[in-house]
Design a protein that fits this description.
It catalyses: L-homoserine + NADP(+) = L-aspartate 4-semialdehyde + NADPH + H(+); L-homoserine + NAD(+) = L-aspartate 4-semialdehyde + NADH + H(+). This is Homoserine dehydrogenase. Belongs to the homoserine dehydrogenase family. This protein has 437 residues and is of the alpha/beta class. The chain has 14 helices and 16 strands. A 6-stranded parallel β-sheet has the order 3-2-1-4-5-6, with helices on both faces. A 6-stranded mixed β-sheet has the order 8-10-9-7-11-12, with helices on both faces. A 4-stranded antiparallel β-sheet has the order 14-15-13-16. α1 crosses α12, α4 packs parallel to α5 and α5 packs across α10. 46% of the residues are buried. Bound molecules: NADPH dihydro-nicotinamide-adenine-dinucleotide phosphate and ligand LTNE7NMQ.
């Protein structure tokens, strides 16, 4: 810490990354310097901003002399109080965060990919260094969801966390549904608006949502879930025809993250894949790059968190909230309670253990299948990704794609479907191999 008894206190801040989020954080740190100083009780002095490339046309809200392409040297200065990591990805972000902690700074990051891959190492390093590592921006942009799970609900028993946690894919699916825009065009727009990751494959193939699911499941169930533990499918296989067919059946397609724990508090499951949702379900009305997360816990019951899930300004709000909080802790010379690696719980229905099934039905009326969609959606162990028609005329069949981790859940779904009055017969149940719907 850099303060002296008779001088106004100053905390030194370094920013790593000046992209969609970093540039907005820098702008707000500069514009709101006086107000932030009042709220914190110390001024935040931006002492360096690391970027990947020298760009002569870069617009900055601060003295451009603060720019550097040597992030490693910046985090090793030894006099930093707070480092804000907004580069993204695994390396060099991981080495920079570890070096910042080792050299005495608290860290604020929005890097879900890194936390979901190697959170244990980072949290252990923060605990060893007696510094904060805060990451509200890592899940669902502006929505406060990390702190509620980490603090407010920590005395309760969370059973399920479920929702839309990727703004880019929600933006794309929404545009394809409501305006008939093509996938590529909608993705380009999401990139232009600063929603997408540097490599948008992370968004559209579900890696970003899977990283967020791993973080949410770790916090909700007091265990350590990594991205490898999360069953993942993206939206690249969702076709315009499937969206139209979902629409015909009164549904929309959403990419959901679903994390749950068995009733005995043992097994944990986390998965990300497209799900058909009836239009009257609250998640169906989450539009554009908005996110929504439902939390179900034993005593609190159902909670819903909703708001902008991506973009420079909304994410900067979450980052600055963390900056104020860790800065206050620096002044008090305390840290938030450490996030230790908890005992690993049994993980259920993860990775290859969660399987997709293709259930073909001979039906009299497509609408009857809607009931099963609603039923399956309410079931903790099964969800329906798509219902589509295959074949034409007398040969036409309805095909339901479900995801399930257990044979019992699959049998239950098949039974539910065959019990529907409009279903003449369940003609086949096949396991689906490989990626895609
Ligand atoms: N965008 C969003 O809506 C959200 C993003 N996040 C997370 O926030 C983080 C930042 O995202 P975003 O701002 O969108 O990313 P961008 O790709 O827009 O910005 C990344 C920044 O990092 C800089 N950078 C790249 N490599 C290095 C390096 N080796 N050393 C120093 N700087 C480097 C880039 O430099 P240069 O400018 O030279 O290219 C750029 O300024 C990511 O972890 C992301 O997942 C979290 C929530 C929402
Ligand atoms: N690319 C991410 C950004 C926020 O986390 C998204 O689209 O949600």
């Amino acid at each position: 810490m850099t303060s002296h008894p008779h001088e106004p206190r100053t905390l030194r801040v370094a920013l790593l990354g000046h992209g969609a989020v970093g540039s907005e954080v820098a702008r707000l740190l500069t514009r709101d310097a006086d107000e932030l100083a009042q709220r914190i009780g110390a001024r935040l002095e931006l002492v360096g901003v690391a970027v990947g490339s020298d760009r002569p046309d870069r617009q900055t809200a601060f003295d451009p002399a603060l720019l550097t392409t040597d992030a490693a040297a910046l985090v090793r200065r030894g006099d930093l109080d707070v480092v804000i990591e907004l580069i993204g990805g695994i390396e060099p972000a991981r080495s920079l965060v570890l070096a910042a902690l080792e050299h005495g700074a608290s860290v604020v990051t929005g890097n879900k990919a890194l936390l979901a891959e190697d959170g244990s190492t980072l949290f252990a390093a923060a605990e060893d260094a007696e510094r904060d590592l805060s990451y509200e921006a890592a899940v669902a942009g502006a929505i406060p969801i990390i702190r509620p799970l980490r603090e407010s609900l920590t005395g309760d028993h969370v059973r399920r966390v479920l929702g839309i946690v990727n703004g880019t894919t929600n933006f794309i699916l929404d545009a394809m549904t409501t305006t008939g825009q093509g996938f590529d065009e909608a993705l380009a727009e999401a990139q232009r608006l600063g929603f997408a990751e540097a490599d948008p494959t992370a968004d559209v193939e579900g890696f970003d949502a899977a990283a967020k699911a791993a973080i949410l499941a770790s916090l909700a169930f007091h265990t350590r879930v990594t991205i490898e533990d999360v069953h993942r499918e993206g939206i690249t296989t969702v076709t315009a025809d499937e969206i139209a067919s979902a629409d015909d059946m009164g549904c929309v397609v959403k990419l959901l993250a679903i994390c749950d724990q068995s009733m005995d508090g043992g097994a944990v499951s986390a998965r990300v894949h497209p799900v058909m949702i009836p239009k009257d379900h609250p998640l169906a009305s989450v539009r554009g790059a908005y996110n929504a997360v439902f939390v179900e816990s034993e005593s609190a019951g159902q909670l819903m968190f909703y708001g902008p899930g991506a973009g420079g300004a909304p994410t900067a709000s979450a980052v600055l909230g963390d900056v104020v909080s860790v800065a206050r802790n620096r002044l008090l010379e305390v840290t938030a309670p450490p996030e230790r690696t908890h005992a690993r719980r049994r993980l259920l229905g993860i990775g290859d253990a969660r399987t997709r099934y293709h259930i073909a039905l001979d039906v009299d009326d497509k609408a009857g299948v809607l009931a099963s969609v609603a039923l399956a959606f309410a079931d903790n162990e099964v969800s329906i990704s798509a219902v589509r028609q295959e074949g034409h005329g007398d040969d036409a069949q309805l095909v339901v794609i479900t995801h399930t981790a257990t044979d019992a859940a699959l049998s239950r779904t098949v039974q539910q479907l065959s019990d529907l009055p409009m279903v003449r017969e369940v003609s086949s149940v096949m396991r689906v191999e490989g990626e895609g719907l």
